[in-house]
């Protein structure tokens, strides 16, 4: 079980950049993408900060050359941009040469259009084209269409904020079992009034820059983003003489079974997910070089996740940081965004800082890495924790 | 690789299917464009106070999962995997309309919390205190088959022994209203006997849930062996036969090994051609059954097709009401389920007598 699955390409669009290179540049130059929201009209504008992709929908449509009658949700457009970059980055010119599938994670899906035209649908025929793009699978179908993936396994996972991590997990298992030769895995979520107001009612949105693992954290900033990885079987890697960026070495999913939205105080679910991932990777906790934490900067998450990390790593704590201060919490996409960042960390032997941290939490003495740090990295562990008690861990490694 | 078995089933549908002792013995007639699931006695399974907070989909999912767990005679599972194409529509509609109607003010979190697609899987886990693997697939008409495939891989590799798999869909009033506008719903009421020959656009929309305990060991309650699952995001009408033959070949089977085929016809004049082509083509000499005239169309109703196939395999009886043609197999050993929705998201599920 310990052999990793090769990652041969990746693509991303987030609040800190429209491709992998721009994201890396922002990460090492500590440039965060948190601002007021511009593309959504909301009365919450002055009370929240978000990680927003600054292109308008019209600009995205133009970039993708979509016809005027298209019915793409913003989620689908962000997803297509990231997935296309991943395919190009993997050097794939003929997608049909190998049995290729797509697994995407999303929680918002086409809700951005539904909330815009909810009542208009009843009277305005022009808007009705978006009725069919509401459901979560629609964005994935559109990514498949844009990549030319046909007659294949294309599916969507929605487990709230761990969706994309779970998509990576399923993709890795499909490659290992020989069901697919190649699979594009990741996630996409756009900002919407639905999620802005939903998280607002839960009172976990910060009115300023989010501060993961800080005693005085005030909550999360919502973000929008999409990211995809290309996973390929060893046979394809060999036949195509592929450059491997990194490997998906281990993965685990568990349920906190504690509360519909909150995590348990002692982080049972996250602990189990990390344990499972280490087992699949056949690694000891002490062999993890860096943890990219979920670290949303809510009171509940950082305490629960922190305790879980302590339970696993104890005295042998490697450097850890949350990159949510850069991008905001991109919900279902987060696991894929942070997968790209984990691979970048491995490729460049660099640990990205946990921005905005000032005061250690009183419950424990865990201090995140706050400065950019050069370190030889062989393994990175990334957590994604979500509603419904859904906890996922993916481990990335330099060597198979 | 280990074999995989369907050891228990549970169905809540527009028919009275929640009691596993019955097998479509008593048919509820409908003459409508939208049909709702028949409620079991929820009180038997969920405390009333908890049930009041749950939308119908959550209630149905939680109860069906309990029925399936009871029949399998197990207390917990190694994974809970659900499929839902549309998710928790009732709470989603509640929250979106509240945002719009009150201009983003006076909102409460309950409907937002429960609108999340993985609410049902999460609630089942909470109820069972099950900390195991918990996934939800949300890909239109193959949501359930994605869940089934995931479960099958884990069981084959012995990563799990028992997995609870299910599909759930609930109707939301506004969603139904807008789908009428784009002709996804039939323009006029049709009765059960008319659905297949209605010659109109759209389907009879519905809701319901089907849960199964699948395991890598056969128990006394075993219904069927789950041999293979495959999904296709696209498939042209002309290529379905070829895809089926390839699929069978991969499983070392020929067309005449199939004793019975379960079709997902919903009476939509624009899309039933996919089934008709098979019915008159490669499966013209095979016994054929269908079910959407009884339980309507929704994104995970194909799980009812698997329920039907499981029942047929276990009881070796085929209710008259589901028969499409007059062919009767003497013994039903191998069953193939084929489904698609609006020409996309095709699925094949192969089952064998256990």
TrEMBL record, chain A:
Cellular component GO terms held in the UniProt record: cytosol
Top-level taxon of origin: Bacteria
Family according to the record: Belongs to the thiolase-like superfamily. Beta-ketoacyl-ACP synthases family.
Ketosynthase family 3 (KS3) domain mapped to chain residues: 2-398
Signal peptide residues on this chain, from the entry's feature table: none
GO process terms (BP): fatty acid biosynthetic process
PROSITE patterns recorded: KS3_2 (PS52004)
Pfam families per record: ketoacyl-synt, Ketoacyl-synt_C
Protein name: Beta-ACP synthase
UniProt xrefs under Gene3D superfamilies: 3.40.47.10
UniProt-recorded Gene Ontology molecular function terms: 3-oxoacyl-[acyl-carrier-protein] synthase activity
Listed CDD domains: KAS_I_II
Keyword Transferase: yes
Swiss-Prot/TrEMBL keywords: Transferase
TrEMBL record, chain B:
Domain Beta-ketoacyl synthase-like N-terminal: 39-216
Keywords, ordered alphabetically: Transferase
Gene Ontology molecular function, alphabetical: 3-oxoacyl-[acyl-carrier-protein] synthase activity
InterPro entries linked: Beta-ketoacyl_synthase, Ketoacyl_synth_N, Thiolase-like
Cited Pfam families: ketoacyl-synt
Cellular component, GO annotation: cytosol
GO biological process, one term: fatty acid biosynthetic process
Keyword Transferase among record annotations: yes
Gene3D superfamilies assigned to the protein according to its UniProt record, in alphabetical order: 3.40.47.10
Keyword Transmembrane annotated: no
Name by which UniProt lists this protein: 3-oxoacyl-ACP synthase
Species the sequence originates in: Aequorivita aquimaris
């Amino acid at each position: 079980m310990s052999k990793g699955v090769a990652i041969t390409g990746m693509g991303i669009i987030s609040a800190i950049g429209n491709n992998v290179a721009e994201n890396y540049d922002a990460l090492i130059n500590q440039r965060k993408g948190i601002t007021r929201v511009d593309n959504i009209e909301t009365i919450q504008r002055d009370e929240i900060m978000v990680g927003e992709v600054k292109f308008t929908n019209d600009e995205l449509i133009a970039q993708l050359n979509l016809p005027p009658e298209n019915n793409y949700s913003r989620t689908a457009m962000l997803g297509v941009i990231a997935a296309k970059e991943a395919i190009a980055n993997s050097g794939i010119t003929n997608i049909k040469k190998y049995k290729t599938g797509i697994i995407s994670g999303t929680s918002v899906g086409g809700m951005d259009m539904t909330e815009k035209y909810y009542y208009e649908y009843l009277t305005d025929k022009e808007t009705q084209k978006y009725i069919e793009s509401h459901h979560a699978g629609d964005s994935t179908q559109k990514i498949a269409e844009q990549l030319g993936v046909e007659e294949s396994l294309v599916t969507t996972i929605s487990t709230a904020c761990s969706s994309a991590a779970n998509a990576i997990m399923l993709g890795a298992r499909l490659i290992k079992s020989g069901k697919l030769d190649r699979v594009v895995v990741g996630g996409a979520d756009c900002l919407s009034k639905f999620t802005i107001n939903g998280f607002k009612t839960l009172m976990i949105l910060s009115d300023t820059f989010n501060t993961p693992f800080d005693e005085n954290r005030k909550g999360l900033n919502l973000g929008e983003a999409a990211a995809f990885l290309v996973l390929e079987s060893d046979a394809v890697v060999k036949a195509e003489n592929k450059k491997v960026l990194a490997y998906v070495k281990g993965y685990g999913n568990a349920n906190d079974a504690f509360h519909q939205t909150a995590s348990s105080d002692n982080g049972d679910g996250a602990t189990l997910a990390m344990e499972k991932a280490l087992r699949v990777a056949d690694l000891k906790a002490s062999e993890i070089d860096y943890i990219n934490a979920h670290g949303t900067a809510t009171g509940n998450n950082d305490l629960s996740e922190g305790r879980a990390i302590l339970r696993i790593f104890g005295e042998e704590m490697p450097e850890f940081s949350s990159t949510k201060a850069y991008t905001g919490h991109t919900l279902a996409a987060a696991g894929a965004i942070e997968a790209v960042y984990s691979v970048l960390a491995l490729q460049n032997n660099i640990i990205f800082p946990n921005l905005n941290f000032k005061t250690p939490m009183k419950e424990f003495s865990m201090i995140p890495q706050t400065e950019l740090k050069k370190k030889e990295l062989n393994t990175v562990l990334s957590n994604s924790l979500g509603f419904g008690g859904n906890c996922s861990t993916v481990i990335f490694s330099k060597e198979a | 690789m280990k074999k995989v078995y369907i050891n228990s089933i549970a169905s809540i549908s527009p028919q009275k299917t929640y009691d596993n002792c019955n097998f479509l013995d008593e048919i509820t007639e409908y003459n409508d464009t939208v049909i709702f699931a028949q409620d079991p006695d929820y009180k038997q399974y969920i405390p009333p106070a908890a049930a009041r907070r749950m939308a119908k989909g959550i209630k149905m999912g939680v109860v069906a999962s309990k029925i399936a767990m009871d029949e399998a005679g197990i207390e917990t599972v190694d994974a809970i995997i659900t499929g839902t194409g549309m998710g928790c529509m009732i709470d989603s509609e509640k929250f979106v309309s509240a945002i719009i109607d009150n201009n983003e003010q006076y909102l409460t979190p309950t409907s937002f919390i429960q609108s999340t697609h993985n609410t049902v899987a999460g609630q089942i886990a909470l109820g069972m205190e099950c900390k195991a693997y918990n996934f939800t697939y949300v890909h239109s008409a193959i949501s359930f088959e994605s869940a089934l495939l995931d479960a099958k891989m884990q069981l084959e590799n012995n990563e799990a022994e028992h997995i609870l798999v299910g599909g759930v869909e609930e109707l939301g009033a506004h969603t139904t209203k807008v789908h009428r506008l784009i002709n996804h719903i039939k323009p006029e009421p049709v009765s059960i006997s008319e659905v297949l020959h209605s010659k109109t656009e759209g389907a009879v929309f519905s809701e319901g849930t089907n849960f199964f305990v699948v395991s890598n060991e056969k128990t006394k309650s075993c219904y069927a062996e789950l041999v293979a699952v495959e999904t296709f995001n696209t498939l042209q009408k002309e290529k379905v036969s070829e895809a089926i033959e390839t699929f069978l070949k991969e499983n070392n089977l020929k067309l005449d090994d199939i004793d019975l085929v379960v079709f997902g016809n919903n009476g939509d004049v624009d899309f039933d051609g996919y089934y008709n082509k098979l019915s008159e083509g490669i499966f013209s000499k095979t016994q054929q059954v269908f079910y959407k005239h009884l339980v309507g169309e929704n994104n995970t109703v194909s799980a009812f097709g698997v329920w039907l196939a499981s029942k047929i395999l276990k009881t070796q009886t085929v209710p008259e009401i589901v028969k499409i043609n007059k062919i009767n197999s003497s013994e039903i050993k191998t069953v193939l389920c084929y489904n698609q929705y609006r020409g996309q998201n095709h699925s094949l599920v192969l089952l064998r007598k256990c």
